[in-house]
Every structure is written in structure tokens, then in C-alpha cells.
TrEMBL record:
InterPro entries in alphabetical order: Nuclease_put_TT1808, Restrct_endonuc-II-like, Uma2
Short name of one Pfam family: Uma2
The name this protein goes by in its record: Uma2 family endonuclease
Start and end residues of each Putative restriction endonuclease domain: 16-186
Native species: Desulfofundulus thermobenzoicus
Record's keyword terms, sorted: Endonuclease, Hydrolase, Nuclease
GO function terms (MF aspect): endonuclease activity
Amino acid sequence: MGFPRKKESGSYTYGDYLKWPGDERWEIIEGIAYNMSSAPSRRHRKVLIALLNEFYNYLKEKDCEVYCAPFDVRLPEGNEKDEEIKTVVQPDLAVICDRSKLDERGCKGSPDLIVEVITSSTASIDYIQKLALYEKHGVKEYWIVHPVDEVVMIYMLTDNRKYGRAIIYSKNDQVSTDLFDDLRIDLKEVFKE
């Protein structure tokens, strides 16, 4: 399993990120920069497009919006200026219901729901670092989608602002969510070859 390449030294900010080459895809997690430029597989893209289609069609008459990578999500620690923010990620999918968080650069603040589709090079970050990061920043639901194993793991914030145990769905299930009580996603369609 590969790992994203880190920038060698320093603590980076969104201001630094804005100066980096546009042909490379970077994320900064609490000041540490990771190169996420490896090309996703065809399967990854197909699963992502299927999920984007499901969310887009469901949300098009609602107040929430869905975006897919590359789409900057800046997660400030407090009231720091944009250029001083030490965390910027590009989730595969982000659903934002508070439109005041949206600007021309993307989203500033926590999305309501984030989906990451696992690749071999990002799995450790998605399962460990981003899980802790999204919990810390109050992302209400975090979906980890494994296109090879055809599994979706959903973490939901509990009343104590911690993620509970993951709810795991397989290819033969329909995903439901507490955020949107009438949303049903048939995973047979999402994982269809």
C-alpha cells in the first residue's frame, strides 16, 4: 500500500497552499501537507460518480448542496484569517447545508456530510487522520466507501460530539442516513460493474 507524499518540513497554511502548482493536488491536515495527486482508479471514479449522481438528484430541490473534488474545504481552529488556516482538505464528496459557509474558494467550516472513496494510497489518512479530523470539526456524518470490498462505513456524531461505532453497509444494502430521512441509496447501483 502506498502513502501520500508529505512535504518534508514546516507547518503549512492555506496561504502556502494557494501558491503551490495547480497541477498537483495537496491537502493540509493540521499544518502537515500531503500530496494527494495519485490518479484514482477507474473503479474509484465510477463509484464516486454514482454517489455524486445520487446526492445531486436528491438535493437539487433542497437547501443543501453537494460538491466533489477538487473542492477546498477549509477547517479553521478559530477566527484566524483564511491564509492562516492550517487544515484544507478536498473530500471526494461534501454536502453543505449552511450556505453561509460557501464562498468562491469552496467551503469554510465543516460540511454536514463528507464522503471519502478509499484508494490504496489514501486509506491510512482516510481511516485514521480524517476520521479524527472530521470528528474534531463536527462533521455530522463521515462516509468511508471501499470500492473494492463494496462496503460503506458511516460514522455519525453522537450527542457528545464523538463518532459512534460505524454502521456498515454492503453491496446488497440500501444506505439510509439520519441527516436526510427519506434518502435511500441502493448500493447495488453504486457498486455495479
